[in-house]
Amino acid sequence: MIGYPNVRLRRLRSTENMRRLVRETIVFPSDFIYPIFVIEGKNIKQEVPSMPGIHRFSPDCLPAELDEIASLGIPAVLLFGIPDQKDELASQAYHPDGIIQQAIRFIKINYPQLLIVTDVCLCEYTNHGHCGVVKDDYVDNDLTLPLLVKTAVSHAEAGADMVAPSDMMDGRVKAIRKGLDENGFCTVPILAYSAKYASGFYGPFREAAESTPQFGDRRAYQMDPPNLREAMREIEMDIQEGADMIMVKPALPYLDVIRCARDSFKLPLAAYNVSGEYAMVKAAAMKGWLDEKHVTMEVLTSIKRAGADIIITYHAREAARWLNDDKRMP
Asked: What is the distance in angstroms between the CA of the first residue and the CA of the last residue of the chain?
């Protein structure tokens, strides 16, 4: 009979070199996309109180952050904009000289080695904080689609390498794909926030992006957390509509959704390790309750082990430094 004492699984855990040799899941800096908040103005670098180490930057203050990102081997950034004006139709989201459009052009000229991914949503730009056009206190799906298309096209015109619609309106991937193609951007891919849940883990992001809804919530368009089969339907529809990559958001409470998506679909799969997940680790580490490096790398490894090819994470800079330092160790 095969088993103990002939089989001793601890043999392959005896030393760090042995553990490295048989390690099944390895996280690399090249797996990361780093989210950045860009704000109107000049000479602005504001730390987000609920996200220690994360800042909002005016475009002129981006170089120090981008220099480090590029040097660490992180290949891509995901841009979120905070405009100085908001209105009912989110006009600054698709303005040719909007804050995101400014940031795209700046990065494209000065950091051509970085891949620029842009969040396509209206919540940061509306005066009510919802992700679409509000009519009779209801977010109107079909009235929102043309504005999302205008936003995505304006990002592509500014030089974005990839657009990422996060609004969760039905049909937005199809509409954006059509809009991009008709305007000569058939080579710009779409990373769809396909399974984006109505999560309680977004609180710190809403502070950073000034995007808290002024009434109600987003449960009528973001996914209901108990549902997994519905997530697969959302992903399948986005693929049919032309998505080039798919995403599950948040990551940690939805590792089962990531695994199911990985098993069901062949497209590149991203997972968003969101602001609340980041803030929890940071807060516990600041209290001395957790080993920050150990826990952060355990979190990121779990996301990749679940099946994610790409991890969008606010931990990217620190994790990349740790990984690079570990690689240089004798």
From this structure: 41
